Amino acid sequence: MNRRDFLKSLGAGAVATAAIAVGCDSPNQTHAEGFTLGEVPTDKMTYRTGSHGEQVSILGYGQMRLPTVEPDNRDSDIDQDQVNALTDYALAHGVNLFDTAPRYCKARSEKAIGIALSRHNRDEYFISTKLSNMSPDTLSFEASKAMFEESLERLQTDHVDFYMLHCVGLPCKGLDGETMDPMTAFHVRFEENGMLDWLVEQRKLGRIRNLGFSYHGDVTVFDYALSLHEKVHWDHVLIQHNYVNWRHAGNLADDGSGDANSEYLYNELAKRDIPIFVMEPLLGGQLANMPQFAVDEFKRREPEASVASWAFRFAATMPRILTVLSGMTYMEHLQDNIRSYAPLKELTDEELAMLMDVGSRYAGIELIPCTGCQYCMPCPYGIDIPGIFAHYNKMVNEGNVMAKPLDDADSEERRAYRKARRIYLASYDRAVAPERQADHCIGCGKCLSDCPQQIPIPTKMAMIEKK
Length: 467
Hints:
This protein has 16 helices and 14 strands. The chain has helices at about 5-10, 80-90, 110-115, 140-155, 180-190, 195-205, 220-225, 230, 260-270, 290-300, 305-315, 330-340, 350-365, 385-395, 410-430, 455-465; strands spanning about 30, 35, 45-50, 55, 60, 95-100, 125-130, 160-170, 170-175, 180, 210-215, 235-240, 275-280, 320-325.
């Protein structure tokens, strides 16, 4: 299938997001840690056009993981000076959309980016935030409305350019403390309390310029939300989209319910002419730290490009994508991603086919689909859930998670196992403090309803503890 046919299969017939790109790539060289070094263009960013004519940078700045004063301490204060410097740099290099939410960084993200952006003219940037009314004390109309007003106050603005219903498709706790299924949660959070109607009214008043939702879970809720399109007129939808999830759904229950692959999500949105925001283009950082087979394939084709750049190019090649959100904690991340999109070098037919193959092979590796969002934190028992999962996935990718040999296994197999086991345990203690490791999990389940990926966290902790 040629590139034109491939794009047609993606729903390219309804393209309202025409790419605007000028300039050309400059020679680069690869940093030892995987970043691409060289010129960072200031005037070559690719832009696409939203529902209301906004020229949005294809790279959006996600504010879920901000730098802290103590870099290794997630509970440390946000480093406002660094946030300011990163924001200034992003704006100077063409990034004009900044995405946050009340839940990010323990409710500190909106305030931090509000401070940083308030130092610039309001017409220089777009703000995206969300209605994160997932806890019982935020379900009422009054509490949900207050959350919206507090967002405006923290962001130091009188309007939100892109506002979203947050975590559509996930369960949440009801007023009685019991967990509501994803569909019931949608009805309670947005419809029965009148909040969705109120948000539509705020859009008419100009306090919200674009109204959408972020999808994280049960595909039946995604389909239901889209059935409201004629009534609500969704201006955009945020989905998880990368070259692994394109054909391989993140989480499916035994009965087939649950998440859907991003090919399905993309095409359903394209049918309705709804612009798409992308989250997790790197699958929580996993696609920047790929197994050796993938690294070899990428370097054979473009030795000077970073591993992460392939994922970013994939995410943005699809014509319905309005912006690709990336959490860029450090300057190196920001610079590398700007190079990927200033301008965007769309994938060829052959490169798309290669990534489909890499994605299928990678999906066959038994990794834990944690994106490091930290919604599960803090654990009441002090367990570093994201850190444990990140270490485990790293060890799997490096071939250091092996089944224990049978008693009659030959000595070579035993030696390989012992070597992998030593590496696993030694690096575990370096990556996660002993008092925060999986053996401290008591299976209380408090984290289960908070996980956007619906990972059975206590079960995975027990599995890791036995490795």
